[in-house]
């Protein structure tokens, strides 16, 4: 006899003898009805215990959180709310759960509380749905690239390069902290970090991905990246996962097409394969919306929003056009932007991005051709000499979902740029080699995976879409 999953059993509508299932008790009502979940689906299966034939001692051990092994029959359910249920013939308690101390009670817990119990929070419906979606999205991403001729490439986690030039890196050190090598002025010589070389945790696999794109053609990375920025927002993590495709002979327009097609395909995948979890999360959000004033409620439900993005063109707008729109706009009748854009060249703040996406265009927006001086050194300089072929994709409720660009493929222009920004050529000699030997137009982008999971699940805080969030306050577990 094979153990079935709850998902398998719920999909059956015939009477089945001798089934077996293992899982965790969500609730036990009236000494008779177990709601059992094993993680295979958002739904619990009802298991009906014959309390007259079951020992008192066993009944007492059927508590919320306990792991159980049930044998019985799958029958049509007498009660409402489910098609089938299990008539229990035998139940073995595999692992007890003390109802006095078990943190996950059968009631609504706050997300803050559940973050403190991150090791148990996937025992709740919300977090199990979110993490199943996270897994499904990962699969859909690999599937998309695999079906479109991309190679999956692993880029280093420990690296000597600062891909973004933003200096937000975690140092990796083999130095003896009690007795570090010193500079002449007495300060610690970090140049000695990694057996004689300065190293950090990667902020992006892009530069290494570029090297492989320039031989394998189409590659992508999907791995952890690290930013030592001390930002406590609901959209930033110190450790997050990034997907970075990089393609040879592709320009910025091709990059936009790729990103849009990719995102839509991923959304369609989960709409098709994760219906139950999405419906559960949608209902959760609708419940939350009910207590909000009418004006603050969202116009679309979660699934409607995903379908809308999957079915409609992303609006493509240049930075310069966006600035004109913003200069002539007020976020609402009374309020001005907190941060007013005085002139061309300023970086957009999240209030501006959200205005463009949520109020003005009401759809995802691809902003492109940013001023060179607010973007990274590797971006392709436009013929105007002041903008670069950068693109950011902004999503409703999220802000920046994707950042990418066409890369500077001209050796001399890149050298000039690095000189101007004081980036040492010796550190990126291999990167410059790509421009010396068989250089070509190429482009790519980075998608912040957790931001995608937030969008798909409707979760409001990035800490709730990654198993163990790393933020300035949180590095437990
Ligand atoms: O815009 P970013 O910094 O771009 C890069 O790193 C490029 N090298 C990517 C490339 O062209 N290959 O980061 C890309 C995306 C952002 O759009 C955002 O979604 C996400 O990564 N991201 C973060 N997500 C969570 N927490 C953080 N601290 C993040 N920083 C960036
Ligand atoms: Mg960015």
UniProtKB/TrEMBL annotation:
Q: Record's Pfam families?
A: tRNA-synt_2 (PF00152), tRNA_anti-codon (PF01336)
Predominant location of this chain?
cytoplasm
Q: Where is the Aminoacyl-transfer RNA synthetases class-II family profile domain?
A: 131-467
The entry's protein name is Asparagine--tRNA ligase
Enzyme class, spelled out? ligase
The protein's superkingdom reads Bacteria
EC number(s) on file: 6.1.1.22
- Keyword list, A-Z: Aminoacyl-tRNA synthetase, ATP-binding, Cytoplasm, Ligase, Nucleotide-binding, Protein biosynthesis
**Is Cytoplasm among this UniProt entry's keywords?**
yes
According to UniProt, the reaction catalysed is:
tRNA(Asn) + L-asparagine + ATP = L-asparaginyl-tRNA(Asn) + AMP + diphosphate + H(+)
- Subunit notes for this chain? Homodimer.
Recorded hits in InterPro entries, A to Z, give: Aa-tRNA-synt_II, aa-tRNA-synth_II, aa-tRNA-synth_II/BPL/LPL, Asn-tRNA-ligase, Asp/Asn-tRNA-synth_IIb, NA-bd_OB-fold, NA-bd_OB_tRNA
User: What family does the entry list?
Assistant: Belongs to the class-II aminoacyl-tRNA synthetase family.
**Origin organism of this chain?**
Geojedonia litorea
Subcellular localization: Cytoplasm
Any idea which GO molecular function terms this record carries? asparagine-tRNA ligase activity
């Amino acid at each position: 006899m094979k153990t079935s999953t709850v998902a398998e059993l719920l999909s059956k509508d015939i009477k089945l003898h001798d089934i077996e299932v293992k899982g965790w008790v969500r609730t036990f009502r009236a000494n008779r009805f177990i709601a059992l979940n094993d993680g295979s689906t958002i739904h619990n299966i009802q298991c009906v215990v014959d309390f007259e034939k079951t020992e008192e001692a066993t009944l007492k051990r059927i508590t919320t959180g306990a792991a159980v092994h049930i044998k019985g029959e799958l029958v049509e359910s007498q009660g409402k709310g489910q098609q089938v249920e299990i008539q229990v013939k035998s139940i073995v308690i595999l692992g007890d759960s003390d109802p006095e101390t078990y943190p996950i009670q059968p009631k609504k817990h706050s997300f803050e509380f559940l973050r403190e119990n991150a090791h148990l929070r996937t025992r709740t419906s919300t977090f199990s749905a979110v993490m199943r979606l996270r897994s499904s999205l990962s699969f859909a991403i690999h599937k998309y690239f695999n079906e479109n001729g991309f190679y999956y490439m692993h880029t280093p986690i420990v690296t000597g390069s600062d891909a973004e030039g933003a200096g937000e890196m975690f140092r990796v050190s083999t130095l003896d902290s009690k007795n570090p090598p010193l500079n002449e002025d007495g300060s610690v010589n970090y140049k000695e970090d990694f057996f004689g070389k300065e190293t950090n945790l990667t902020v992006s696999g892009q530069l290494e991905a570029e090297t492989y794109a320039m031989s394998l053609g189409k590659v992508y990375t999907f791995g952890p990246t690290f930013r030592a920025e001390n930002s406590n927002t609901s959209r930033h993590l110190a450790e997050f996962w990034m997907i970075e495709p990089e393609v040879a002979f592709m320009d910025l327009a091709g990059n936009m097409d790729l990103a849009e097609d990719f995102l839509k395909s991923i959304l369609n995948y989960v709409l098709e394969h994760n219906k139950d979890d999405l419906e559960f999360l949608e209902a959760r959000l609708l419940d939350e919306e009910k207590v909000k004033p009418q004006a603050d409620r969202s116009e679309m439900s979660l699934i409607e929003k995903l379908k809308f993005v999957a079915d409609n063109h992303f609006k493509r707008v240049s930075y310069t056009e966006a600035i004109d729109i913003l200069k002539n706009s007020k976020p609402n009748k009374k309020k001005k932007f907190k941060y007013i854009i005085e002139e061309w060249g300023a970086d957009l703040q999240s209030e501006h991005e959200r205005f463009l996406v949520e109020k003005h265009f009401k759809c995802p927006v691809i902003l492109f051709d940013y001023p060179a001086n607010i973007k990274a050194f590797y971006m392709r300089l436009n013929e105007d000499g002041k903008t670069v072929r950068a693109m950011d994709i902004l999503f409703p409720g999220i802000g920046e979902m994707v950042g990418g660009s066409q890369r500077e493929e001209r050796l001399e222009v890149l050298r000039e740029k690095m000189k101007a920004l004081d980036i040492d050529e010796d550190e990126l000699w291999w990167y410059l080699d790509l421009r010396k030997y068989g250089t070509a137009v190429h482009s790519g982008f980075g998608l912040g995976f957790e931001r995608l999971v937030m969008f798909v699940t409707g979760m409001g805080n990035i800490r709730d879409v990654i198993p163990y969030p790393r933020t300035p306050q949180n590095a437990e577990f």
